[in-house]
Every structure is written in structure tokens, then in C-alpha cells.
Amino acid sequence: MNKKYTLLLLLTSMVHLFTDLACHFYAFALLAPMYPQKQFELFLIYNFIAFVLQCPIGYLMDMADQRLFKGLGFGVGTTMLYLGYGFGFLLGAPIPGLIFCAFGNAFMHVVGSRMVLERSRRGIVGGGVFVAFGALGVGMGDYYGLKRPEIAGTMTILICIALLPMLVYAVTEIKRANSSKEGLKVIDTRVTISPKSVICLGMCLFVVGARSFTGFFLTDSFQEFISSETAASHGLFASMFPGIICFLGKAFGGILVVSFLMLFKVKSLRKMNYIYGISALLAGTVLSYALGHIPVCSVLGSFLLNSVMPVTLYEIFCILPKNPGFSLGLTTLMLFIGMLPTLVFTPTPETASLLLIILNMSACICLLVGLKCYSEKENLVNKDV
């Protein structure tokens, strides 16, 4: 990756981290104490807006002029976060504030994904790194909201100050777009999808949904890696350790795909993408469930299963190359769908292990089907040429 793209990726990833931190801190520092009996409903409302609505928001943002979408996305997202904190902490209306924060989260996700996803090696690396930073933001927001409620006032002030550079950047980009002599254009995001690409898309979406569900029941034997003092005090590191493994898996998934591509001299990045996804799912399942009682195996298994995230995101974007925001929106939609059963279903450890093995093996089969369809499609194209 070149220096310019690396800086872009770092900045958008930090925006993602900060946005998730702000939203989750708001939810647990303000809403949870005020509505202890309605956390389920509020959690569902927030996730529906922040996850499901990324699809239509992403589709619309993909059509925005290149000079406008960054300013519009960051501007609306930042304004929504300000409104959320204003309604919640100043006007005493925390539920409307939660809705504003959720919309702000959705816009920030969409604009960030469009900025880092490109149809190249940078895209698979950038997409994974960008999404990964959200895991750290969620963990930090949950920790400071639940464990450190006494600093709510200080955190609120810091969050509002930190939003200012994003708002200034948004206003600057909008002014630049409006002052352009060429005028603003609507981008045609329509793509032609072959039947085999539809199958590949469906397979990847199933994998995302299965990964969402299984993520709630991964074997957790991480305590050996956390000092007894930190674990006993429920410190930041102990609280975030599973999230750190999630972050590392998502961040390094795309890097590993590109590394294996060069190591084994595979010509097609997408083919290597599928091969890595299948291998990571198989190895992660064995380590997490067959050897999950061994802490190091549990950690490696969680890392590998999370590393499949950039695999599916990048393949979906390759199928919909003009729709980076919508591509991420499809994955967040499936994350929401995969999460729904966990709200009403808590399996026993034995049932969970069996169910998760079945789902992960089904996900492997889906990627195998996707690989076959992609390979046949590529062979057909090469033959026609």
C-alpha cells in the first residue's frame, strides 16, 4: 500500500473506532441505568438502524458525486452524533438521542467503507482493517459506559470536542464540491450480475450470517492470557481481550490472503480469497470446538474465524464493484439477521458446540460452492476471449 492510502486507511479506521465508542458509551452510560427493563428493545432498535439501514443509506451514498459523498457522509454522521448527545445529555430525551446516534453510526460506516474499498489488493486489506477498528471502539465504549459511569461527564465533553475536526472536514469537502466548475454528478451504480455471481453473493451472505451467530457462542478460555490481578478487577484489558482477538483476526485476514497470494504465486486474488476463507473456517472450527479447552487453541481459533470477515466483504464488493457502501450494508444486514436468534435462544454448551460446528461446516460448503462458480465463470470468460 502507498503512503497516501495508508494514511487514509488509518484516519477512517480511527473515525470508525471513535464512532462505535461514542455510540456504545452513550448506550451503557445513559440508557442502561435509566431503562434497565427495556435494554432488549433499545438494543434491537439501535442495531436495526445502525446495521440494517446501512443498506439503503449505502446504496444512496454510492450514487453521490465523488467530491460530495465524503462531506455529506461525515457531515450527516457527525451532526447525528451531536444531536444524539444533545438530546440525551442536555434535553433529557435519551431514546431519541439513541436513534440519532444509530443513524450517525450508519452514515459513518458507509462513508468510511467507500473510502477504503477498492478493487485491488488494497481493498481486501483496507476493508478488513477499517471494520476491525470497530471491535475496539465497541469494547472501549462498553467498558467505560458500564465500568466507569463516574466519568460520563468528562467522556461526553471529550467526545463532543473530538467530533469537531470531522465536522470541519465535512463542511470543507461540501464547499469544495459546490465550488467545482464541473458541477455535481449522479453516479450510475447499476451492475450486471451473472447467475453464477448471484450464487457467489448468496453463499457469502450466508457465511456472514453464520459468523454473526457463532460469534456469540465462541469458546472463551482466554483467562490464562490475562493477569489474575487485571481479571479480578475487570480492567480495560480483561474486558476487551476477546474484542482484541476479534480486531486482530479481521485486521489481518486480508493481509494473510495477499501474503499467501504472493507466497504461492496464485494469479487470481479472488481465488486465493476463497481458498483462504475455506481453510480458515476449517482450522478455526477445529481449534475452537475440538481443542477449545486449550487457551492458545481457543485464541487462534477465534482469530481465524474472525479473519474470514474481509474475505466475504471483498468478494461481495467484487460482485458489486460500483457499490462499496451497499456492499458493506449487505454484510451488516446479515450480521443483524444472524444476531436475531441469539436474542431468544441460549443453547446448552453441548448443543452450542454441535450447532456451531454444523454452521461452520455449512459456511465452508458455501465458500466451496462460491469458489466453483467463480472458477467456472472465469474459465467461461477466458474461453470466450
Tags for this model:
mainly alpha, 0% strand, 2 domains, 385 residues, Growth Hormone, Chain: A, 15 helices, globular
Question: Can you walk through the features of this model?
Answer:
- This protein is mostly helical.
- It has two domains: 1-187, Growth Hormone, Chain: A (Up-down Bundle); 192-319 and 346-385, no CATH class.
- Helices cover 81% and strands 0% of the residues.
- It has helices at 3-34, 39-52, 54-62, 66-90, 94-116, 121-147, 152-178, 195-215, 228-232, 236-263, 269-290, 295-306, 309-319, 324-344, 349-384.
- The longest helix is centred in the last third of the chain and has 36 residues, at 349-384.
- The two termini are 31 Å apart.
In short:
81% of the residues lie in helices and 0% in strands. The chain has 385 residues and is an all-alpha fold.
Helical stretch tally:
15
Q: Compute the separation of the termini in Å.
A: 31 Å
Rg value: 21 Å
Name the helicity range. Answer: over 70%
- Give me the count of strands: 0
Listing every helix as H and every strand as E from the N terminus to the C terminus, the arrangement reads HHHHHHHHHHHHHHH
Taking all residues together, what is the mean pLDDT? Answer: 88
Low-confidence stretches: 228-232, 380-385
How much of the residues is beta strand, in percent? under 5%
Would you identify the CATH architecture of the largest domain?
Up-down Bundle
3D shape: globular
Look up the CATH topology of the largest domain: Growth Hormone, Chain: A
- What class would the helix/strand composition place it in? mainly alpha
Largest sheet: none
CATH class of the largest domain: Mainly Alpha
What is the total domain count?
2
